[in-house]
Design a protein that fits this description.
The complex is a heterodimer of chains A (about 120) and B (about 110). Chain A is mainly beta and about 120 residues long. Chain A has no helices and eleven strands. In chain A, strand 5 and strand 6 form a beta hairpin. The mean pLDDT of chain B is about 95. Classes of the chains: A mainly beta (about 120), B mainly beta (about 110).
Chain lengths: ~120, ~110
């Protein structure tokens, strides 16, 4: 149980492109979904928290107009990196939580490379 | 500021050895402590600990929490090469927004 699917697993694209990453909870309803960024050999850095049907809460220093988050249903959240630049290259990971107090379960991550 | 510290930062052992990974925390609020294993992709959930002294066990892995001394350990017995990974410890503060505070991880390498 508690499977989270993240797609795509890898994206390579040109600078200026917008990239959408999907995160789906496959066998449970996710009240809350989280988006993280991870740099090589570092721990996860939380970017934003999203609850179904409401606006995402962004962490300090994360541009909400740059990283658009939509949590349209209890099983799907999307992160769109708008007008991506090489400095946005990173490993992006989503997680989903069924109910308050339950563990977060992570997707497999998306490795984004902007040329 | 909430803090989660893991030690050692990296560990190299031979297959069959037993390892103990440490996680200490200083947080304003505490609901649970979680252990994750991260290989090449995203973290996979191992344990969630909420009460002191109750060991959680899954195969060769076990973990326990001490809420008085503010730490947890993760034990792996009879290690195998497939145990090589980064092990992450995280604290759920119960603020209602569910933000986890992660440690920097312990990189475990098992030599055949």
């Amino acid at each position: 149980g508690a499977v989270v699917s993240q797609h795509p697993s890898r994206v390579i694209c040109k600078s200026g492109t917008s990239v959408k990453i999907e995160c789906r909870s496959l066998d449970f309803q996710a009240t809350t979904m989280f988006w993280y960024r991870q740099f090589p050999k570092q721990s996860l850095m939380l970017m934003a928290t999203s609850n179904e049907g409401s606006k995402a809460t962004y962490e300090q220093g994360v541009e909400k107009d740059k990283f658009l988050i939509n949590h349209a249903s209890l099983t799907l959240s999307t992160l769109t990196v708008t007008s991506a630049h090489p400095e946005d290259s990173s490993f992006y990971i989503c997680s989903a939580q069924g109910t308050s107090g339950q563990p977060q379960h992570f997707g497999d991550g998306t490795r984004l490379s902007i040329l | 500021e909430d803090k989660v510290v893991q030690s050692p930062l990296s560990l190299v052992v031979h297959e069959g050895d037993t390892v103990t990974l440490n996680c200490s925390y200083e947080v304003t609020n505490f609901r649970s402590l979680l252990w994750y294993k991260q290989e090449k992709k995203a973290p996979t959930f191992l344990f969630m600990l909420t009460s002191s002294g109750i060991e959680k066990k899954s195969g060769r892995l076990s973990s326990i929490l001490d809420k008085k001394e503010l730490f947890s350990i993760l034990n792996i017995t009879a290690t195998q090469t497939g145990d090589s990974a980064v092990y992450l410890c995280a604290v759920d503060p119960n603020f209602g927004n569910e933000k986890l505070t992660f440690g920097t991880g312990t990189r475990l390498t098992i030599i055949p």
